[in-house]
Amino acid sequence: MATDSTSFPLRSLASEICTHADTLSTFYETHDLTFPSLTDTSSGCLNSLPHDAPEEVLNARRDILEAIRTLETMVQGPSETLRLLVHNFHDTATLGTVVRLGIPEAVPLDGSISFGELARKVGVLESKLVQILRYAFTNYLFRESPEGYISHTTISALIAQPNIAALVYLITAECLPSPAADSPLRAAYNLGFGHNRTFFDSLTEEPERVSRFNKAMKGYTQLTLEGIQADGTEDVEAFPWDILGKGAKIVDVAGGSGHISCAIATAYPDLEVIVQDLPQVISDSQSKLEQSHPELKGRVSYMAHDMFSEQPVKGADAYYFHKVIHDWPKAECVKILRSLLPAMKPGARVLVSDYVLPPPGELTKIQDKLLRQWDLTMLIIANAKERYREEFKELFALTSPDLVFNKEYKARSNSAGSIFEAIYKPSSSAPAVAKS
Ligand SMILES: C[S@@+](CC[C@H](N)C(=O)[O-])C[C@H]1O[C@@H](n2cnc3c(N)ncnc32)[C@H](O)[C@@H]1O
């Protein structure tokens, strides 16, 4: 079959990159030059070419960068490219926080420092430092090696120079607040915009923002990201919903517009789903559902409920949280989960669906970045976070010894999402709650 550069641009871009890489390598070899290292901070080599390099070599550098960028963008595809752009402000924000805290000077230029020691040195919570720096690593700003220890890269070492640090500070930290606490009332969002209510409470003050937020939630599930998020229906496949039994009742706590519930109810016609959210969020959801999914009438319904207060739907088979727990710090998550307990019957399930942070080094830089952008978005809005696998189990254990972690249901292999299942197994002989 005939192939050309138009139908297979990846091949022609890749071969262009090889040609230019060859030109650059030959120049380095024949001039006995060292190629700038990402990690060797002693090399002092800051630019990839001397200013007086021949024009042909300078052009090769320019063209290789252009080809790499085009190739990268094409391979990423529109969805992933847009998602990266949407979150790009984290690049600047982490840089601002790093200089404001004096991290570049606190990390030794010729060694490493542990997260704990660095946190003490610069006076921040260690957990926040880990969140911020593990994102910065995705931009080759500092590096973690071995696990738990931070060293400079040649890029972060630049910011250890006072004039460069001052420049970075001027452009970034002057304008950006940095989080310093664990409370959802003292997140960067609150400090920056002067709100004294949580992100979600302040959202409900403005109907236009609520509507935009609901649309944004659907938008996120439409942008598939290789290795991070398959698509909006991944939870439908990730969990065997039929094990809940014929006619089972699911409560989709903080379910927003109910788009995930609709997908589940469509795939499993025997299930009933109640979508709960704040009154302002679901005010017109029922009528919208009847227009968009008339076939789900009677099986998907909406209920106003503040998830921090006692769960009103008694005896449901499962209480499901899709991208909700990651919106809150640990203490608030425990409060949310505890509010379910008085309503739960023995054997009922709590299903927490969120991204799972992998151990460092497991994902490619770009996937790690995509995931940690989301982590930092949670940090900014509520001092919240994405969680490592063990942290989900810890949340159940902190909620009650009767809420027993059972299983992690991994979404598709090209996703970082999982559903963590806990089963209510009351140890006391208190009577089971009645089915509502
Ligand atoms: C990140 S969104 C997730 C929505 C939905 N589960 C989804 O996956 O599209 C978090 C949801 O939590 C809701 N929420 C925030 N605070 C709440 C509260 N106190 N009680 C009930 N819902 C709340 C918000 O209105 C929002 O719809």
From TrEMBL:
<feature type="domain" description="O-methyltransferase C-terminal">
    <location>
        <begin position="188"/>
        <end position="396"/>
    </location>
</feature>
<keyword id="KW-0949">S-adenosyl-L-methionine</keyword>
<protein>
    <recommendedName>
        <fullName>S-adenosyl-L-methionine-dependent methyltransferase</fullName>
    </recommendedName>
</protein>
<dbReference type="InterPro" id="IPR012967">
    <property type="entry name" value="COMT_dimerisation"/>
</dbReference>
<dbReference type="InterPro" id="IPR036388">
    <property type="entry name" value="WH-like_DNA-bd_sf"/>
</dbReference>
<dbReference type="InterPro" id="IPR029063">
    <property type="entry name" value="SAM-dependent_MTases_sf"/>
</dbReference>
<feature type="domain" description="O-methyltransferase dimerisation">
    <location>
        <begin position="85"/>
        <end position="159"/>
    </location>
</feature>
<keyword id="KW-0808">Transferase</keyword>
<dbReference type="Pfam" id="PF00891">
    <property type="entry name" value="Methyltransf_2"/>
</dbReference>
<dbReference type="InterPro" id="IPR016461">
    <property type="entry name" value="COMT-like"/>
</dbReference>
<keyword id="KW-0489">Methyltransferase</keyword>
<dbReference type="InterPro" id="IPR036390">
    <property type="entry name" value="WH_DNA-bd_sf"/>
</dbReference>
<dbReference type="InterPro" id="IPR001077">
    <property type="entry name" value="COMT_C"/>
</dbReference>
<dbReference type="Pfam" id="PF08100">
    <property type="entry name" value="Dimerisation"/>
</dbReference>
